[in-house]
From TrEMBL:
GO terms for molecular function: flavin adenine dinucleotide binding; N,N-dimethylaniline monooxygenase activity; NADP binding. Its cofactor is FAD. This is Baeyer-Villiger monooxygenase. Residues 496-537 are annotated as: Disordered. It comes from Streptomyces aquilus. Coiled coil: none annotated. Keywords: FAD, Flavoprotein, Monooxygenase, NADP, Oxidoreductase. It comes from the Bacteria.
Amino acid sequence: MTEHEHVRVAVIGSGFGGLGAAVRLRREGVTDFVVLERADSVGGTWRDNSYPGCACDVPSHLYSFSFAPHPDWPRTFSGQEHIRAYLEHVADVFHLRPHIRFDSEVMRMVWDAERLCWDIEISGGRRLSADVVVSATGPLSDPKIPDIPGLDSFPGKVFHSARWDHDLDLRGKRVAVVGTGASAIQIVPAIQPQVGRLTLFQRTPPWVMPRVDRAITGAERALHRALPFTGQARRGLLWGIRELQVSAFTKHPDRLGFVEQLAKRNMGRAVKDPALRTKLTPDYRIGCKRILLSSEYYPALARPNVDVVASGLQAVRGSTLVAADGTETEADVIVFGTGFHVTDMPIAERVVGAEGRTLAEVWKGGMEALRGASAAGFPNWMTIIGPNTGLGNSSMILMIESQLNYLADFVRQLDVLGGRAALDARPSAVGAWNRRVQERMKRTVWNTGGCTSWYLDANGRNTTIWPGTTSEFRRATRRVDITEYEVIRVKKAANKAAETTANRAAEKAAETTAETTAETTAETTAETTGTKDEVSA
């Protein structure tokens, strides 16, 4: 990358979101773009998470791009190595590598109101400017390790599941695993046979259903290669089943009681000790936290070299780990499976918008973005997997592709405007969208299920999950409504910074309850009468 290079679009990240954006830009005829990747290879979270047992809990044929079907998935639920290989394949097939800048971490990006572009500072002192920025860093990219008193004094190895130390031999060691999320329930059965002692610190037990995984036969793969529509049908079936499940999560959480009974039976088959079963039984409605899939987790916990501490890790005193309930355990290794910075993404601290404030400052009261993509005060900036675009029961690739549709139309709108122009989401539009989302969120299992999850931010607000079907989201992001944006031209850019604060204050004051009610009613009517989209494969 040359000094002070300028491109039309800069994409940040090369996981599913970043590579998908790159493919979509090329298909729209945009070739003047770069993909900035802080690591030395593509893959995003599927590159970083290489811990033992790492695999996806979404079926393989649904966890891939519709425009890049993969008939040769080896298993119904793919392992990390297979998904990473798929992403490498996408980068090659769609000729994306010339656009990718590896070892290029974005340190800071600032909106230039006079030039109508983003000035981007990259690791190594390099600089770049771009008309449009697409942030595809993803919510599962920056590990979170809790602040445990005395952790620095621990004499052994300490690492997060997303930064696995593959040089460390765990054979015979006393290993403590902190956390019981999606990563931990895969790590525990994978390392249990080789460690001397395994202690699981469980602050909250998860609901776990069987993971019906199997090898996909050679005949099946040959069929999908010869007759691609069979793979499309398989994908469509998997999608349809999950769409039918959504109402139980979003409108009728009481119907999930039957699923809880299935989960308890799954536990009972493997865990015969009543005391252990009590420890492992959640006290909240299933679905409030993500339902985890594993057929090996419970059997591993029942093994004689495993202890379950039904409490979080509170302090470390040398090699002694102290739980919140006072339980003390000796360990040689600590593995944190404690999740990621989701509602407080570090990238937000590096984005400085039109008013001179960082995205983190603007989002201090909670993340919100128009249709999960555009934040007010950040012109020509879009995020993939933004606020309230997460899913609790289906494939995030479906949501990513919907946001790629929105990105494509965003670029088209800029072309229609012509000349030097930018689009900045109106605060009124962002507010209206967010109010509708939060109103629908009130009766979902994620808000009423009685748990504390990573879906909620520091203020207790669910800024992570989409409270509807993937079809609804696809309809909502099919195209850009230009009236939801302020069009910025070069001739008014010089006055933009001075006028922005006053204009937005006046606009916010002018919003009325009647307007909000009308918007909510219109949205409800659209959802009721809208026809269901088919997901292409």
